[in-house]
Recover the amino acids of this structure.
């Protein structure tokens, strides 16, 4: 099977994007891992697939696989690249799209500046819906990882996140503790581990250990989860500038059942073909 692809990134969080509208795409977990391999394949954090919408009124369906071959529900940086891809490829001409994901419809919008704003929907806190094994909903939870007790905020932004506030993200144990949190038994579907440093009321620094991908240079849903966490804890005011190692996103949330809005860049790197 020969597939055309585009290599894209949002703040260094990089993707192989596949057009499943004009070509047939059916990937096994092993093929996903082969494409994502940075030595023997194209190399990426996630693979994104554009497919025709299943429901009337929607424009496309959006599927995501992590580098380890597992399909996941949502990816914020990927959503911006998705929107940029369908416009660049002539699959869509309008500025705002309705896109189906495994966790509902998102609405990416291409701005006149070239940046992409995405309505990520409201955050989900109910433990059963994250999913997270806890007796009831709380603002923060105590979990144990590597012999340490951690105070984390747990929520879903289309995928599960456990966010902790740290003094300095540069010295945070992201690569050692992150894998333990990812596979903590309280998270049946694993979890993304976020490390949040508050710089000011409207500015944070963030590192994320992503399930199935390891630490990435940026994480869109992680940025949303971190901003929501900080606002709920009374540490931040919306909008929040979320600075990751690969760049900065702007996240806005009015609280309650309101949607979280994320804005940032999406860039195309190159196009090619791969034989599987």
């Amino acid at each position: 099977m020969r597939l055309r692809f585009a290599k894209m990134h949002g703040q260094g969080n990089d993707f192989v994007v596949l057009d499943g509208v004009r070509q047939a795409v059916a990937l096994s977990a092993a093929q996903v891992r082969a494409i994502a391999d940075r030595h023997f394949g194209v190399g990426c954090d996630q693979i994104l697939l554009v497919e025709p919408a299943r429901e009337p009124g929607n424009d496309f369906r959006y599927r995501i696989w992590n580098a380890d071959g597992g399909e996941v529900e949502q990816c914020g940086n990927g959503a911006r690249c998705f929107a940029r891809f369908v416009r660049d490829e002539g699959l869509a001409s309008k500025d705002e799209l309705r896109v189906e994901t495994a966790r509902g419809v998102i609405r990416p919008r291409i701005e006149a500046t070239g940046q992409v704003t995405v309505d990520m929907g409201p955050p989900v806190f109910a433990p059963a819906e994250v999913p997270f094994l806890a007796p009831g909903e709380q603002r923060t939870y105590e979990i144990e990882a590597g012999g340490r007790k951690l105070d984390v905020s747990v929520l879903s932004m289309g995928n599960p996140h456990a966010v902790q506030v740290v003094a300095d993200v540069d010295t945070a144990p992201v690569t050692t503790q992150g894998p333990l949190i990812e596979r903590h038994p309280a998270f049946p579907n694993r979890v993304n581990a976020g490390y949040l440093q508050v710089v000011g009321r409207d500015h944070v620094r963030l590192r994320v250990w992503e399930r199935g991908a390891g630490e990435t240079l940026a994480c869109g849903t992680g940025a949303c989860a971190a901003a929501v966490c900080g606002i709920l804890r009374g540490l931040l005011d919306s909008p929040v500038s979320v600075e990751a190692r690969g760049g900065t996103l702007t996240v806005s949330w009015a609280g309650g059942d309101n949607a979280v809005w994320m804005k940032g860049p999406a860039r195309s790197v190159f196009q090619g073909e791969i034989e599987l």
Remarks:
- The longest helix spans residues 76-88.
- The mean pLDDT is 96.
